[in-house]
Every structure is written in structure tokens, then in C-alpha cells.
Design goal:
Layout (H helix, E strand, L loop, with lengths): L10 H8 L10 E2 L6 E2 L10 E2 L2 E2 L5
Antiparallel strand pairs: 1-2, 3-4
């Protein structure tokens, strides 16, 4: 059995339901070591540090 709507949904009702599907900008914080912008709770791509510990060696 497939879904069969009882009544037709208007365009306004359909579009207002879809209105909350929007992209948000990623949250960025400053790295505690180098001050570069990075995503929180991730290794800094500029210096390779996370939580004041070197995780990867930067180039």
C-alpha cells in the first residue's frame, strides 16, 4: 500500500513546511596555539594542535 493523502495540500502549506530547510554557517573558533580560525573540537589544520597537544605535524 502506498501513501494516499486525504486532501490536497496547498502550495502555501507545502512551502511553509519547506521554509525551515536552510543551511547554517559553520561555527568557527580561534585556535589556542596559533589563533587561526578552525571548527571546534577538531585538530587545527594550520598548526596540527588540539587541546594544546600536537596531534599531527604541520608542514
Amino acid at each position: 500500500m502506498s501513501i494516499c493523502p486525504k486532501n490536497k495540500s496547498s502550495k502555501a502549506r507545502r512551502d511553509s513546511r519547506r521554509a525551515n530547510w536552510k543551511m547554517t554557517a559553520p561555527a568557527l573558533v580561534k585556535c589556542s596555539k596559533c589563533g587561526e580560525l578552525m571548527m571546534p573540537h577538531r585538530v587545527c589544520k594550520a598548526c596540527g594542535y588540539y587541546d594544546k597537544k600536537e596531534i599531527i605535524t604541520a608542514k
